[in-house]
Amino acid sequence: MTEPSATPIVRNVRVLSAEEIAMQAGRQMPFVNLPLRAGLFADRQLRLRQLAAAHPMREYLLFIADLGSAQHEVFQTYPEVDLPDAAACELAGRALQPPMPAFGWPRDAAWRAELRRLLALFRGRLAAGTARETVDRLLACPDDWIEQQADRLSRRITLGLDLATAPLIAAGLQLYWAQLAIRLAETHGERVFGHTEPATQCPCCGSLPTASLTRIGADDSGFRYLHCSLCSLQWHYVRIKCTHCESTKGIHLQELAPEPGVALPATGARPGAVKAECCDTCGHYLKLVSMEKDPQVEPVADDLASVALDLLVSEAGFERSGHNLMLLFGDPEGAPDDDGGGG
How far is 332 from 336, CA to CA, in rounded Å? Predict the structure, then answer.
């Protein structure tokens, strides 16, 4: 008697990440990591100098490192400004919205004064040339024009953005929003930063992340956090999940890998420390930097130094979902003349 042939049973099983397994086991991790006043810009400028060695973008990385040094100095004595009260924070939390949206929360005029203090300090570190002339031009611009440029940066509008001065204005905005994040947590506690809708936007200011970071440490080792491009708050976001459309399907990683006879572009990071997490569902990607592979990684610095990886994944048809305020693209003509003189 012939036995009937067995029909194989195929089950689609999604493999859990180590992070998901830890979460299902009840392991707790902080939802947010605040920017550190003493380390935020100091660590960034140190990492940029480390990455700049033998890098094709060496001069620009050092330029941003010097800007970061000036940011660090200004950050230590940043003046206090008004914050939303507890009732406003609670209302935002119930609506799954950030308490201080980047475009919506009124910027205190102090941010422009601190921007000018930053520029004056930074100018003293520059040799005569184009960079110093750009700083001088920005220092001479009227407040209204600077506010218009800041609005474009906050809204992620590149049309009419003055690309030469944009990183400098962005540096002033980063100072303002980072100190707001710190002071809001000091005033109302870290629980003021709750889950938002969508979860891919910063729970403090609603901005997009620059990159994601897998951390090492006692409380959050192996967990992935998104790093805000504006206020530098980091918030937990499950690994192997698209940071644009939130899909868990079609997620894969790409990295710069050497091929026989092909020189690998220098990034300065250790192998495997910077990858692009790509989503086949929506066609977007975001960099993933790993402290497990290189404990010295810093999201903004390592994203900036790995532009070659952006070119690789964009050639494969993926669109960047992150935002790095230190590397912007837009209208080559700069701001329209009727904006008041940025040019």
Answer: 11
Instruction: Point out the domain boundary residue: 197, 219, 241.
Output: 197
Residue 308 pLDDT more than 80? yes
Tell me, what's the pLDDT at 266?
A: 65
Dihedral sign, CA of 265, 266, 272, 277? negative
Residue 259 pLDDT level (bands cut at 50, 70, 90): low
Do both 37 and 156 map to the same domain? Answer: yes
- Structure confidence by residue, pLDDT tens digits, 274-289: 999 999 999 999 999 9
User: Token pair of 153, please?
Assistant: 């940066």
The 10 Å Cβ neighbour count of residue 339 is 18
Q: Residue 67 and residue 123: Cα distance in Å, rounded?
A: 9
Together in a domain, 216 and 188: no
How confident is the prediction for the chain on average, in pLDDT? 87
Residue 22 in any domain: the answer is no
- Give CA 192 to chain center in angstroms: 21
| CA-based nearest residue to 237, from 272, 202, 270 | 202
Tokens 């960034």 belong to which residue?
44
Cα(300)–Cα(323) distance, integer angstroms: 10
Contact 325, 230 (CB under 8 A): yes
Of 197, 218, 238, the position where a domain reaches its end is 197
Q: Are 138 and 122 in contact (CB under 8 A)?
A: no
User: Mind listing the pLDDT tens digit for each residue in 144-163?
Assistant: 999 999 999 999 998 999 99
> Is pLDDT above 80 for 261?
no
Domain count within the chain: 2
Looking at the domain assignment, is residue 315 inside a domain? Answer: yes
Pairing of strands 284-290, 209-214: parallel
Of 112-121, 128-137, 267-276, 317-326, least confident by mean pLDDT is 267-276
How far is Cα 137 from Cα 262, in angstroms, rounded to an integer? 43
Cα 133 from Cα 135, distance rounded (Å)? 5
